[in-house]
Write a structure and sequence with these properties.
The protein has eleven helices and 13 strands. It is globular and about 65 Å long.
Length: 315
């Protein structure tokens, strides 16, 4: 049985996007017969059996495959990991750093537009063909497109948000729209006072969700308001209209690609502008765009890994 080690960014300043997409691949690899171990900085937030991130490559037990989804690990660290495995895969979103890896994976819808020729000598897997989307999201997309829900709104600013930012936008939106607002707080965060107060004083209009089942929640709304990360990609796959705020520099390309698809608008991180864009989305006729993801991304990534394994000796 081949083994795999996943080194994944998590934590209150990083969020859960890296973890969510990596775990889609991890689960698929387990099903394919790999023995997998997860390493992350915030073990409690992972919700899985996990180990602390190694401080150096030498601290990591050898594995057939090492998969890194972290911006904290530099080229020197990646080079050191090569002595601990047969195949090294690195996630990337921007093509702005050098990557000493056998495989570089950019599963975003814009991935194929980036030039990795100067960043790596490894095999490059890019674009929605390799998108790592949870199966429940894909199943939700099928039912959503057959029976689109009413004009409810989800406000979610990622795995680092306590609901304070979302509550500001929701407060203004309440005066401009009659639609229900689902306000999301990250599972590892303590809900902000403003979010708790808004939900308590407006129970018919606002529902507060603390670490919810996102697949189920996204299936109930029309508009997603929030960051342009992993949840935005899931919302796009399902068929929601998107109002996107770039919460981190590496979300810019994602936001621009989604806006180019005609299913998203990009706004500044300012409650009034967010509200105006959301109201505009709700008032326009619904147009469901084709789903750009076929759900076979994890399988294709595993096939690339397995092909390299056949040509390399055991560790």
């Amino acid at each position: 049985m081949n083994s795999a080690a996943f080194l994944v960014d998590t934590g209150p300043k990083v969020g859960l996007g890296h973890l969510r997409r990596s775990c889609v691949l991890l689960d698929a690899m387990v099903e394919a017969g790999f023995q997998c171990r997860l390493y992350c900085a915030d073990i409690a937030a992972s919700g899985r059996a996990a180990h602390a991130m190694p401080t150096s490559p030498a601290d990591l037990p050898t594995a057939d495959v090492i998969i890194c989804d972290s911006y904290r690990l530099d080229r020197a660290f990646l080079t050191g990991l090569r002595t601990r495995c047969r195949v090294l895969l690195a996630f990337d979103d921007t093509a702005e750093r050098d990557l000493d890896a056998d495989i570089v994976l950019n599963h975003n819808i814009y991935g194929g537009q980036l030039d990795y020729s100067r960043r790596t000598r490894g095999q490059v897997l890019t674009g929605p063909e390799y998108a790592l989307i949870d199966r429940r999201i894909l199943a939700t997309a099928e039912s959503y497109r057959q029976h689109p829900p009413v004009n409810d709104v989800i406000v979610s600013f990622g795995g680092t948000d306590d609901g304070a930012r979302g509550a500001q936008a929701a407060q203004i939106l309440l005066a401009r729209s009659k639609d229900h607002i689902h306000l999301v707080v990250a599972p590892g965060a303590t809900p902000a006072a403003g979010a708790l107060t808004l939900a308590a004083t407006q129970p018919q209009r606002v529902t507060l969700h603390h670490g919810p089942d996102m697949a189920a929640l996204l299936s109930r709304v029309r508009v997603y308001v929030g960051g342009a990360g992993v949840t935005a990609l899931e919302a796009l796959v399902i068929g929601l209209d998107l109002v996107l705020v770039m919460l981190a520099p590496n979300q810019r390309l994602n936001a621009e690609a989604m806006a180019h698809s005609g299913q998203a608008v990009i706004v500044a991180d300012e409650p009034q502008e967010i509200t105006l864009a959301t109201v505009s989305m709700l008032e326009r006729p619904r147009v469901l765009k084709p789903n750009p993801v076929d759900g076979l991304g994890a399988r294709r990534v595993i096939a690339a890994i397995e092909q390299l394994l056949t040509s390399k000796p055991a560790v």
